[in-house]
Amino acid sequence: xxxxxxxxxxxxxxxxxxxxxxxxxxxxxxxxxxxxxxxxxxxxxxxxxxxxxxxxxxxxxxxxxxxxxxxxxxxxxxxxxxxxxxxxxxxxxxxxxxxxxxxxxxxxxxxxxxxxxxxxxxxxxxxxxxxxxxxxxxxxxxxxxxxxxxxxxxxxxxxxxxxxxxxxxxxxxxxxxxxxxxxxxxxxxxxxxxxxxxxxxxxxxxxxxxxxxxxxxxxxxxxxxxxxxxxxxxxxxxxxxxxxxxxxxxxxxxxx
Amino acid sequence: xxxxxxxxxxxxxxxxxxxxxxxxxxxxxxxxxxxxxxxxxxxxxxxxxxxxxxxxxxxxxxxxxxxxxxxxxxxxxxxxxxxxxxxxxxxxxxxxxxxxxxxxxxxxxxxxxxxxxxxxxxxxxxxxxxxxxxxxxxxxxxxxxxxxxxxxxxxxxxxxxxxxxxxxxxxxxxxxxxxxxxxxxxxxxxxxxxxxxxxxxxxxxxxxxxxxxxxxxxxxxxxxxxxxxxxxxxxxxxxxxxxxxxxxxxxxxxxxxxxxxxxxxxxxxxxxxxxxxxxxxxxxxxxxxxxxxxxxxxxxxxxxxxxxxxxxxxxxxxxxxxxxxxxxxxxxxxxxxxxxxxxxxxxxxxxxxxxxxxxxxxxxxxxxxxxxxxxxxxxxxxxxxxxxxxxxxxxxxxxxxxxxxxxx
Lengths: 256, 408
Description:
The structure holds 2 protein chains of 2 kinds. By secondary structure, chain A is an alpha/beta fold.
């Protein structure tokens, strides 16, 4: 039997936001080299789980723990978690005036020169940006597709070990979804054989469209703040496509 | 340095007149050094190394590289005047007054001699300062650099500058004002009068870097002729005791235009009272004022703006944004719009707030610490794009700004 080394272990997690419990009894185990997908209708708590794993202060842990690379990070700051190797792609990141995308790329890639390195410039071009674009204030006036590509570009600079993508395909046209998917596959070591993969990921999506381009090992369905089921992504998606998330409600509250 | 008795009388009368704004400074408390106390030099390169470093921090390049000319005043003495441009005259005020009789017609016309005790003091003392004149139709892309330097402790420095851009001339000036590294307290009074003839353009970029106990009272007036443009950029991010300044542009000419851009960083217990005023009387004249202010520690920043539209078809807009970074600091934004004609358009937007937590968290999720994220956001907030400069000067100004923001 192959023993999968776990990169993320979430046990019995309960999260409260502004005094209201949003998530409870969450168990989620992601092995090294695995890609999981988190499905669920709007408002089911997907983004809350994302922010909680990232350690944003508004998301209070009321029970359970989060272990990353064998270390209990439940009380760690976002910065500490990111430095340990967690990376994220946001759905709607804020615009920051006067902070250029280029400045961020340099920090993320550990560069100190005034000019961005040729290695990074290649990535910039690959994501269909140019030197004028990266001189813009980050996310300020970016189109939906530009935001997503910029998030992926920043992850390529960071090279994290575990990456969470919050709705990476929402508001993106087909052509760009394929481009984004290709880079997500690179970030998640998909070109390597399953047993050889080092990078892990969690894709958050409510439509599952991105799964046509990025293969996931396991799917989880989040309903009303609880994981209703986990299993083979294709089977689960097929059920959802047939019956909607309605069927998941039944799994959540089985009627005997 | 007053030729006319009337002016002298008016100045005498205003000797005790408190300024309309700002803490009242006891001028007598400071020592009056005579002109000539410091030795004249041929080039800024003759300065001691530590002075060169100090002036470089306010954008004054001792080698003179990339500059059309240099002027340096230490305390009350104009010590260096050198100019390589054929389209610009740069002189010590004293020499200029000896050379040109007509210069008296420009004295105290853009700034009233009896504005307050500070203008009166400047008029009644033998003040140094520079005279810059851009010849008609000339276009010098390299800036003149001027430095007001306080070299002795507790002195009062008075400066009177006159800047004239003749018809269709384009002139760029960089001014750095600073104090020697061992200076604690001093008083700086700087009177600057700008005259822009038809079609002229002046950009005036000023960086202040005073010591913590220095009192600063600039008095600036700008008179704009037809189709002329005046652009003022002001950067202050280092501690000072108090500064109070309210430059006024008189847009008298048709289609004349002014832009005031200010970047203010309040540190320690500095009191910054900085405004810009435009009196729009020329048909179709316009103004734009943009300021960014960040208050830290116990600093107080008063960001004022006054737009007075006095004839039809004038336009003005004022934008003031502030970030308050400590509970003991203050940003007080006072925008004033005064419309006294039909068909004019004056507007303002002001916002004072805090650093958006969402932005801090975004940067933290890229690996920055909370403090690193906050200071990156503050620097970004202050590093507004300064517009209206030729590309070389814009790059130079950006460098000066980046340097100033390092201390924030």
